[in-house]
Amino acid sequence: MIKTLLAAMLPLAIALPAQATTLDPHQTQARDIFSHVIALKTEIGQGQVPVMAKYLAEQFRAAGFADSDIHILPLGETASMVVRYRGDGTGGKPVALMAHMDVVTAKPEDWQRDPFKLVEENGYFYGRGTQDIKSGVTVLAANFIRLKKEGFVPTRDLIIVFTGDEETTQDTMEDLVKNHRDLVDAEYALNTDAGGGDLSEAGKPLVFGLQTAEKAYASFELTTRNPGGHSSLPRKDNAIYELADALKKVQAYQFPVMWNDTTLASFKALGAATQGNVGQAMRDFAKNPHDAAAAAVLADEPSEVGKTRTTCVATLLRGGHADNALPQSATATINCRVFPGVAIDTVRQALQEQVGPKVEVTLVGKAVTSDPSPLRPDVVAAVTKAVHSIHPGVPVTPVQDSGASDGIYFRAVGIPTYGVDGMFMKNSDDFAHGLNERVMVKSFYDDLAYWYVLLKTVGGPAR
Questions:
Q1: pTM of the predicted model, to two decimals?
Q2: Organism's domain of life (predicted)?
């Protein structure tokens, strides 16, 4: 009888998530917050960002934050949120802490699991936003709540800045720096939406990237025009053919090789841990950025080319208006990631020179550029301390992102910003913006512990 009962219970015991039986109260609360925010469809057009902000505000109030320190700022269908953790004023200007509440659209029919339900399976958390970047929202909120309950009083104000449309127009961030600077002004900002740690495929921590610079996002339209006519009377000039010729010129063009202190330090550190021709090219470029052969190797590597120059690539195409009519116009969208410090119009002019005067080149929407943030010793020391609290001895190196985040707006108005996401990930687990987005369960809880150390360090005694 006892053997039968034990045999029946054994599969149930094995099926229980090992992590779930060992969570402490702070991890449990963080998991609850994570589950709640993942369930909210904060993609564009859903109007759920203000709902998420309201939920988070309730958690902050319950922890003892005053209403006067919790701000929800509506903007169209979305909103931003600012929460101030008041210090005693002895440590200098505030430090801002960044994440965004919105996510890229997810089509449930394409996913293996419900993208708007936090699923824990085989050592991973699955769901839209688990990586980008509701994990960041969660660890900041959960640690603010924990520190408040513990009675921690920082020496300077700590300011959470949650935006609501980073994945689309970034209007909420623009609104904050232009119209609510008093709420978010800081000595510097720490961004959960950039930087982070690399794991080998075997799970070994390799390096932590401290992001000090990011490329600007800018899209341009190339347009050709023609009088058109009947398709039975083809003419030598044709808007679609001329656009195709222009696109081939853009494809063949490479922007000049560029570098800064961040990219050289990054290549030096990453090159030491990278095998093969790419690793050698990293080391050679770090020693001599005028090394054309090294730059050429890096240019052929999609993950590295953006660190050495501005890049532009065709992403959208449209043209013509009827099957039986010659096209009167044709348009292609060219998306560019602009090297820090390069003016947007410099890129536009370079494209115009390549495609010639018959092709219109116009900027789509807005674009913001910024210079790299200085590598502050106090920030490096604080981040290194936090990293080593979860992965002792892992090297910390500055990096430049080829993507773009809300951090560029802070840098543009003179607030140095550092991407310091505490999540460590394998390359094979990177599904941000894609199907079956996921993070390792252990990495999530390590991230929570990392931010606890980092917040107490930057909010501690003045240096």
A1: 0.89
A2: Bacteria
